[in-house]
Specification:
The chain is mainly alpha-helical and about 150 residues long. The chain is built from 8 helices and no strands. It is elongated and about 60 Å long. It starts with 12 loop residues before the first helix and ends with a helix.
Length: about 150
């Protein structure tokens, strides 16, 4: 992956993750052992950023997922920054939507928020382990109700 114009657009967590993963792989393949202080600092930044970002939903995304998500978001009247927030954080509750969408109470109805949540959760993959726990809890709740 190559950065052509650093100020052209906002980057999603997925794009940063891909860029840093590719950079890390290129460095491994080049096999340079001697590193300057600046290079060591860059390696630290790459390591810390990858460590943080790999705990976010972007870890499970792909270029196709991102494209599908942005196409699905065209029907919702959101800014680029709001779409980016939704993509990066994958909200699962209405409260999270309200935190990410500016003036959501005035701009979105409850039905629109539910539609937005459904779109986000159906297109963007979440943590598979977390989804299994959630589905197990739902199954237990149904068993308790009977």
């Amino acid at each position: 992956m190559e950065v052509k114009d650093a100020n052209a657009a906002l980057l999603s967590n997925f794009e940063v993750y891909q860029l840093l993963t590719d950079l890390k792989q290129q460095r491994k393949e080049s096999g340079k052992n001697k590193q300057s202080t600046g290079q060591q600092n860059l390696n630290t930044i790459v390591y810390e950023t990858l460590k943080y970002i790999s705990k976010t939903p972007c870890r499970y995304q792909s270029p196709e997922t991102v494209r599908d998500f942005l196409i699905a978001m065209k029907g919702h009247k959101l800014t680029k920054a709001e779409k980016l927030q939704l993509l990066n954080h994958r909200p699962v509750t209405a409260v999270e939507i309200q935190l990410m969408v500016e003036e959501s109470e005035e701009r979105l109805t409850e039905e629109q928020i539910e539609s937005l949540l459904k779109t986000v959760t159906s297109i963007l993959p979440g943590d598979p382990e977390e989804q299994q726990r959630d589905s197990a809890m739902v199954t237990e709740d149904k068993g308790d109700q009977m």
